TrEMBL record:
PANTHER family: AMINO ACID TRANSPORTER-RELATED, GLUTAMATE_GAMMA-AMINOBUTYRATE ANTIPORTER-RELATED. The keyword Transport applies. Signal peptide: none annotated. Keywords: Cell membrane, Membrane, Transmembrane, Transmembrane helix, Transport. This is Glutamate/gamma-aminobutyrate antiporter. It comes from Neobacillus rhizosphaerae.
Length: 480
């Protein structure tokens, strides 16, 4: 039997950081000015770390494929296991609209038409074209294999390093700009202004930076000495991410004049840095193209990734046989087409809400809320499995003895999740008062509908939905 190569501590730190290293979230950080330091620390300590540590124990104890769905299913039963897998699928309807919206903004700069970045009809059209484009390509080719790791290097890592580097040079050269989001520093700027509740909603968008934090736990079984090295890797990764994001966020806050920052436009700070430092404008076009490539690669990964997980759920009998259809290339065609249609409908929000900043933030927050429901189920499952299945071997375990530390981390995580949901329901300050009711209604209805559909499907589940075993597999079973 071949020996499995174990991940080193530094290898896991690199992989964990790779999940969250993106320039897309920097404008959401930057718009909060000095308060972003407080928000990032809250997001890391109250949200990311507890979920990552609980997920590590669950991942090492229940290592079969499926992740959160398996954990919740073992703890709370089939119904909530299905709800978990369903929510992890449907959150991409909103998340991919948010990601796709940056394609139009970037394309405007690539073709030297920056005015298109604020044209909501153009953004809407590009969302449709880009998402349907990568969907159809993935039906024919394995775009993730074709793009490979170079897509992440070109579209994520290089742009992020350049953003931090150029931002620091710009700040050293110009100092703190009085007309920027940083302005004249006061110690009170480091904490939220609770008189302006609308500004606190940005915390939800910042927490979204760490959404998906449970993914890195799949490597917990493949690291040397997980009990010691996994928490070191997670804590180190989160600290480094906080530092890099804060540096990027503060430099962008300092570069963009107050009231002018565009949340969906990551090219904006590059343009300001290049103009100030005398770098040719073509550099901005190249950077925009690089980020655009990264976004399209990410979209390609999301076209098939969640749908392949969902078809396994369908095969188990949780969804009608219609959902079990595959193409000759084993593409789960029903899921792929449903998600493309729903994403097209959600993207219509960019027409209904003409202000691109508002639409971008609304969709980001919806995605965060759906993730929070999943994380609440994970937190409940983590503590319940300590009592239901105490003898399961857990290579990584919170606390050497007893359940006290797990109770603390689980409850701490639940407090952070509840706080995030409450904050998410406060209308953002960039909305007009006339839009407040619509905003709250959208968030509540979207969340209730997505959970409700899963519960209704589960209630209507029929035995005949389960996929029949292949005759050859059945024959082999009988032969054995």
């Amino acid at each position: 039997m071949a020996k499995t190569n174990k991940l080193t501590l530094f290898g896991l730190i690199g992989i964990t950081m790779a999940f969250f290293g993106t320039v897309r979230s920097v404008p959401t950080l930057a718009i909060t000015g000095w308060t972003q330091i407080f928000y990032m620390l809250i997001a890391a300590v109250v949200f990311a770390l507890p979920i990552a540590l609980m997920s590590a124990e669950l991942s090492t104890g229940f290592s079969e494929e499926g992740g959160p769905q398996v954990w919740v299913k073992n703890a709370l039963g089939d119904k909530w296991g299905f709800v978990t897998s369903w929510l992890l699928w449907v959150q991409m309807f909103f998340g991919m609209v948010m990601v796709s919206s940056t394609v139009g903004v970037l394309l405007g700069y690539v073709i030297n038409k920056p005015e298109l970045s604020s044209n909501n009809y153009f953004i809407f059209a590009v969302i449709l074209i880009s998402y349907w484009g990568v969907t159809l390509l993935n039906l024919k080719f394995d775009m993730v294999k074709i793009a490979g790791n170079w897509g992440a290097v070109i579209g994520v890592y290089i742009p992020f390093v350049l953003l931090v580097g150029l931002g620091l040079i710009h700040m050293i050269k110009n100092g703190i700009q009085p007309n920027s989001y940083l302005g004249h520093f006061k110690p009170s700027d480091l904490v939220p202004n609770f008189k302006d509740l609308g500004s606190i909603t940005y915390l939800s968008g910042i927490i979204f930076i760490f959404a998906g934090v449970e993914i890195s736990s799949v490597h917990a079984n493949n690291i040397k000495n997980p009990k010691r090295n996994y928490p070191i890797a997670v804590i180190s990764s989160v600290i480094l991410l906080v530092i890099f994001n804060i540096i990027a966020g503060l430099t962008v806050s300092n570069a963009v004049p107050k009231g002018k920052l565009e949340l969906a436009n990551i090219t904006q700070p590059y343009m300001i840095f290049c103009q100030d430092l005398g770098i040719p404008t073509i550099f901005v076009n190249i950077i925009s193209l690089m980020i655009l490539i990264g976004v399209l690669v990410q979209l390609s990964a999301w076209v098939l990734g969640p749908s392949k997980s969902m078809i396994k759920v369908a095969d188990e009998g949780n969804l009608p046989k219609f959902f079990q259809k595959r193409t000759k290339k084993d593409v789960p065609i029903t899921f792929v087409m449903i998600q493309a249609i729903v994403i097209s409908l959600v993207s219509f929000l960019y027409v209904v809400v003409p202000d691109i900043n508002s639409a971008f933030l609304i969709i980001t927050i919806t995605t965060t809320i759906l993730y929070c429901i999943v994380y609440a189920l994970i937190a409940i499952s983590a503590i319940r499995l300590r009592y239901n299945m105490p003898n399961i071997k857990r290579p990584f375990r919170l606390g050497s003895k007893g359940n006290g530390l797990m109770w603390f981390v689980s409850l701490f995580s639940m407090a952070g999740i509840v706080l995030t949901i409450i904050v998410s329901l406060i209308p953002p300050s960039i909305l007009k008062p006339s839009q407040y009711t619509g905003y709250v209604a959208f968030q509540v209805i979207a969340t209730v509908v997505m959970i409700g559909i899963a519960l209704i499907i589960n209630k209507c589940k029929k035995p005949e939905w389960k996929k029949e075993e292949d005759h050859e597999v059945e024959y082999l079973k009988q032969a054995n």
